[in-house]
């Protein structure tokens, strides 16, 4: 028997010795509420200006397409933070989520129903959004988001 044949047999024996489902053990159970919760958690933290808390819901490589531009985490924080410093307040709510899973990756689409309050006037706003999340260290983290403002309802 050659060295190559011995290595192949050893690899096959090792694979056969692994418990059934060992390969799938790395995939978390599909949990749509945990994925939606990660997105809502980031929104809640950003609404209060707690950027450190918001970062805990994002991968280090996070980025978002919003308003026709690409922002990394710091960039979107700067944009929202500047508005908050002028007295603007934001509210965001994940509604109608649809979540799909592929092992440690999830993608979500949802309607973000919220608003912007400036000088005491609240303007309701609806966004159509999507995101890609990665399962790392026992939780879902947002890697990418896309946000498009929905057109105002026709009156």
Model description:
This protein has helices at residues 3-17, 32-47, 51-55, 73-85; strands spanning 58-66, 69-72, 89-91, 94-102, 105-118, 121-136, 139-149. The chain is α+β, with helices and mostly antiparallel strands and 155 residues long. It has a single domain (28-149), classed as Roll (Nuclear Transport Factor 2, Chain: A). A hairpin with a 2-residue loop joins strand 4 (94-102) and strand 5 (105-118). The longest helix has 16 residues, at 32-47. It is globular and about 50 Å long. Residues 3-24 have low confidence and may be disordered.
Write a brief structural summary.
The protein has 155 residues and is an alpha+beta fold. The chain contains four helices and seven strands, in the order αααββαβββββ.
* Shape verdict: globular
Report strand %: 35-45%
Indicate the percent of residues in helices: 25-40%
| CA-atom Rg in angstroms | 21 Å
CATH topology: Nuclear Transport Factor 2, Chain: A
Number of separate strands: 7
Number of domains: 1
* CATH class group: Alpha Beta
Structural class category: alpha+beta
Query: What's the tally of helices?
Result: 4
